[in-house]
Design a protein that fits this description.
Blueprint (H helix, E strand, L loop, with lengths): L6 H14 L5 H16 L9 E5 L10 H9 L8 E3 L7 E5 L4 E7 L1 H10 L3 H4 L10 H13 L2 H4 E3 L3 E2 L18 E3 L6 E3 L4 E3 L2 E3 L1 H4 L5
Parallel strand pairs: 1-2
Antiparallel strand pairs: 1-3, 3-4, 4-5, 4-6, 7-8, 9-10
Bound molecules: zinc ion (2 copies).
Length: 215
């Protein structure tokens, strides 16, 4: 089954698929979530840390794959430090524009997600622990196509634009310098950000060499 992907999302879908690995409906859900949030704020992807994404997911539960779609759609990534996981077990995304001090929260409509998850053709595979990569491709394609086909207003709801939002700047960029001081661990020789080194007598050690549990 060939997917009919909206042209505006095609390149991001292909890129996200390379990063994500398997085909699943939650990654495209994240793509659409991130694109919608950006469109509502009227901002481009974050080349640096212009945007901050706060995702309400935790780990090890359904739909966490959406984080990879959000990363590609917004440019808020683990590597740049402008993606935060709030650990609430929810699927909402708040996107903050640090320069404009504006933010918007968007979230998938719960009934749509639960209906697709519990009653869709994928349910019997998910509930038996079948890895996404081993689900029959036509079943997966059907779910992915549904995510791409639903109009924004059926799939998501969005809060209003919040103005005057203070978006903390961490990391490097936007006139702020992150943690650039590194040292070598006196025991293993690995480079370690100085702030993370532990003092053991005269020695400065990385956390692993200092014995994390005992420090
Ligand atoms: Zn996935
Ligand atoms: Zn060490």
């Amino acid at each position: 089954m060939n997917l009919n992907i909206p042209p505006a999302l095609r390149a991001d879908y292909d890129a996200a698929l390379i990063m994500h690995g398997h085909r699943c409906p939650a990654m495209p859900l994240g793509l659409r979530l991130g694109h919608l949030a950006r469109r509502l704020l009227g901002v481009d992807k974050a080349l640096d840390i212009q945007l901050l994404a706060r995702l309400e997911i935790d780990r090890f539960h359904f739909a966490t794959c959406l984080a990879d779609g959000v990363q590609v759609a917004t440019g808020c990534t683990t590597g740049k430090g402008n993606l935060e996981l709030l650990g609430w077990g929810k699927l909402g995304l708040t996107l903050l524009d640090r320069r404009g001090h504006r933010a918007v929260r968007v979230a998938p409509r719960g009934a749509v997600i639960l209906g697709a998850k519990d009653e869709g053709p994928l349910a019997r595979y998910q509930f038996t622990g079948t890895p996404a990569s081993e689900v029959p491709p036509d079943i997966m394609a059907q779910m992915i196509q549904m995510i791409f086909d639903l109009p924004d207003e059926q799939l998501f709801y969005a809060g209003g634009i919040e103005e005057g939002v203070a978006a903390p700047v961490r990391g490097c960029g936007l006139g702020q310098c992150g943690d650039f001081k590194g040292i070598l661990c006196d025991r293993c020789g690995d480079v370690v950000v100085e702030r993370y080194a532990r003092l053991r007598g005269e020695q400065r050690l990385c956390i692993a060499c200092a014995g994390y549990d005992r420090s």
